[in-house]
Design a protein that fits this description.
By secondary structure, the chain is of the alpha/beta class. The chain has 19 helices and 20 strands.
């Protein structure tokens, strides 16, 4: 067999030649490798959820919902609660949306939600922001939200942006909702998401979206914003304001993210099995709610089991239990064939430190491997969801590249096994694999290379003034925000929007 051509000179030429660039693990990998529940456990939880919906049922049912449910064959049980018979629930699941396109304003950001494909995005309602200058928390502002939007627009592993903080500097709820949606459309062309205080605020937001898209009715044709509602207040009662928001969203073809966020030991059982049984029932109640009014409407089955520290009663965003339960909730939703949402990376850490990194990576990896379609809170969130960090966003973006790579796994085939290459190196080659075609092919295909994580030797690290992750990330944020010139609302449209609504921040 011929020797590797070119020897040392050939290796140098190969290193200097252009390498085909592509992400070794792009977003949208196929998950499902991690299944916290075996088949019997999954079926036991589902059976318990069906029993809860039929025998216990829902309370505080808005009149419009009760009318729809009774007209479609549901009952009021002996407890005076709305009962969903198992056969009815199974019919709802069978007719529910199984996949849909979540549009970006730029089609290159469209993502297909459903099956086992995994996408990471944001969420949250952080009322505090970790200030980059002081390193301490302060109240979040609408300008923070705008800058967070501009930042994620440049982070390739964050596929959509749901508003991550609440602008505490805007006291009026209508102004808050309108400034929030303007910050989102101004700062990115990726898919976006937000919540609304009441249903009446949805319609003017759609008017703004139509203005940005260039004409009345354009949003309905290509809805690029999903609405976040919490249709069920645990345990097992509907929330009237959320129902009103949902009904308004359905008018405009706006996808619905129906979030259940019960807390173990407080609003749901402390046992993980009991927690999952109740919250699966509640998430199904949210799915039913949408499909009572508009069968097949794009709806994300978002069961987010949250955890309390049972010693203190404080909410905790991280740890193995919340990671396992969110992965299990995705497993259940995927088993039902529904578009799934889960939550991860809600670090309890306040600083950008080792605690933050460990907490975020553990939960992001668990949810990613579970096959959850849309993983929320996956970047930026700190302090048990009370805070948001600019620096955490860029570090989480890099962390997520490694999660995607892990989900992808290894390709085992004749080329990657490389038996012929091993034989050549051992028998007629130079006794190593450096610079060979097989190695160069794997270089970009199989390996992630960090842009922020430090791989210097200790001496090089010393000579470079011993940089830490927090400082490196801070500089990266400033670089992105200072260099970004993209503006996703033209001047004439922005002027019209500002004349129409009370926009309270400058760009």
């Amino acid at each position: 067999m011929a020797r590797q051509s070119g020897g040392r000179a050939g290796r140098i030429a190969m290193r200097q030649a252009p390498i085909q660039k592509h992400l070794p693990a792009a977003p949208g990998q196929v998950g499902g490798q991690y299944k916290p529940l075996n088949e019997k456990e999954l079926q036991d939880i589902l059976n318990a959820a069906f029993e809860i919906l039929e025998d216990i049922g829902m309370s505080e049912v808005p009149e419009v919902v009760m009318e729809q449910a009774l007209a479609q064959g549901c009952l009021v049980n002996e407890l005076g609660r709305l009962s969903y018979p198992r056969a009815f629930v199974e019919d709802i699941i069978a007719g529910a949306c199984k996949s849909f396109t979540l549009h970006g304003r730029d089609p290159k950001h469209d993502i297909e939600v459903g099956g086992d494909k995994v996408w990471f995005g944001t969420g949250g309602a952080g009322v505090q922001t970790l200030d980059m200058d002081s390193g301490l928390y302060r109240p979040s502002t609408v300008k923070d939200l705008y800058n967070f939007t501009r930042l994620i627009d440049k982070l390739e592993n964050i596929n959509w942006f749901t508003r991550c903080c609440v602008a505490t500097d805007i006291p009026d709820n209508f102004d808050l909702d309108m400034n929030t949606v303007f910050a989102l459309v101004k700062g990115t062309s990726k898919p976006i998401g937000t919540s609304f205080t009441i249903g009446d605020y949805v319609h003017p937001a759609i008017e703004m979206f139509d203005m940005v898209l260039g004409g009345e009715g354009r949003f309905k044709e290509r809805p690029f914003c999903k609405v976040h509602i919490s249709p069920v207040i645990s345990p097992l009662r509907y929330g009237e304001d959320a129902v009103d928001v949902m009904l308004a969203a359905l008018e405009h073809n706006m996808p619905v993210n129906a979030i259940i966020a019960a807390q173990s030991g407080a609003t749901a059982p402390a046992t993980p099995a009991g927690m999952l049984a109740q919250t699966t029932a509640e998430t199904l109640a949210g799915l039913i709610l949408v499909n009572l009014f508009k069968p097949g409407h794009p709806t994300i089955f978002s069961n987010w089991p949250f955890v309390l520290d049972l010693r203190t009663g404080a909410f905790v965003g991280s740890g193995c239990e919340i990671s396992m339960m969110n992965a299990a909730s995705a497993q259940i939703g995927n088993h039902l064939g529904l578009p799934t949402g889960a939550a991860s990376s809600m670090a309890d850490a306040k600083a950008v430190d080792a605690q933050m990194g460990a907490e975020k990576a553990l939960s992001a990896l668990a949810c990613g491997l579970s096959g959850a379609n849309m993983i929320y809170e996956s970047a930026g969130m700190m302090a048990s969801l009370l805070g948001v960090s600019f620096e955490a966003f860029v570090l989480d973006n890099e962390m997520l590249s490694n999660v995607h790579r892990t989900i992808r796994g290894f390709e085992v085939n004749e080329e990657t096994l490389g038996v012929a290459t091993i034989k050549e190196v051992v028998t007629t080659g130079e006794g190593h694999f450096l610079g060979g075609n097989h190695t160069m092919g794997a270089m970009e295909r199989d390996y992630c290379y960090p842009k922020l994580a430090n791989r210097d030797t200790p001496r090089e690290w010393n000579d470079n003034n011993a940089p830490d992750a927090w400082g490196v990330a801070r500089e990266k944020v400033r670089e992105i925000l200072n260099s970004s010139t993209d503006d996703y609302v033209d001047m004439a449209t922005e002027k019209a929007i500002r004349e129409r609504w009370n926009i309270l921040f400058d760009t």
